[in-house]
From TrEMBL:
Residues 37-105 form the RNA polymerase sigma-70 region domain. The keyword DNA-binding applies. One of its GO terms (biological process) is DNA-templated transcription initiation. Belongs to the sigma-70 factor family. ECF subfamily. This is RNA polymerase, sigma subunit, ECF family. It holds the Pfam family Sigma70_r2. The lineage of its organism: Bacteria, Pseudomonadati, Balneolota, Balneolia, Balneolales. Residues 146-184 form the RNA polymerase sigma factor 70 region 4 type domain. GO terms for molecular function: DNA binding; sigma factor activity. It comes from Fodinibius roseus. Keywords: DNA-binding, Sigma factor, Transcription, Transcription regulation. Coiled coil: none annotated.
Length: 215
């Protein structure tokens, strides 16, 4: 799906924040206000959906379903006290999870529990591992292979990476959106970062091997 930016939008709308744009649309049916909201956020919303379902065709359907619900529900269920984009992401997330469950591909995480120690595995990870993994991810974000590696993560890890790094959502909101505790959300992020670091290390090793063979 090729996401298109609406070009015929007055400059005044680009200077407004999301809250004002939502108010203009809800009160006056202002299509330019809604178009500006779409321009700002559609790429990230679509990227989240695509990263979860792994196919353009189904991602297109879920994206369209999401915004059909957004348009029909903005007058009824949206609370202006909250962030509009967080509300939209909740709709997109729920639509995506519904699809994955229908495909019988959605599996909840249970690997973070260690029966021997009766503690959460993530709570016992050294802080320096998380820091170094975070630094590694930030260094590699510019690479085009990032989305490829994110797609290789388990679904629950892909969720938290996309929501945290591409939407900069706080972990409290991620936990609420994905219906888990904050500790679980943090744990999934730690594990995702560690796995991403391993994937990038593997990619680098492969590149070095290929270079040596060419030499």
């Amino acid at each position: 799906m090729k996401l298109e930016q609406s070009k015929h939008i007055s400059k005044k709308y680009k200077q407004l924040d999301d809250k004002d744009l939502v108010r203009f649309y809800r009160q006056n049916g202002d299509e330019q206000a809604f178009s500006e909201l779409m321009n700002r956020h559609q790429t990230k919303i679509y990227s989240y959906i695509y990263s979860m379902v792994g196919g353009a065709g189904k991602a297109d359907d879920i994206f369209q379903e999401t915004f059909t619900k957004v348009i029909t529900k903005m007058d009824d269920t949206y609370n202006e006290q909250g962030k509009w984009i967080a509300w939209v992401m909740r709709i997109a997330h729920n639509a995506t999870i519904d699809y994955l469950r229908k495909q019988k591909r959605f599996v909840d995480v249970s690997s973070n529990y260690d029966e021997e120690s009766n503690t959460d595995f993530y709570d016992r990870l050294p802080d320096e591992d998380l820091v170094s993994a975070q630094e590694q991810l930030e260094k590699e974000e510019a690479k085009s292979s990032l989305m490829t590696h994110i797609a290789e993560l388990p679904e629950e890890q892909r969720q938290v990476v996309m929501l945290r790094h591409y939407y900069e959502m706080p972990f409290k909101e991620i936990a609420e959106l994905t219906n888990v505790s904050i500790n679980t959300a943090l744990g999934r992020m730690r594990y995702a970062l560690i796995n991403l670091r391993k994937l990038f290390d593997k990619e680098k090793e492969q590149e070095e091997q290929n270079y040596a063979q060419r030499g």
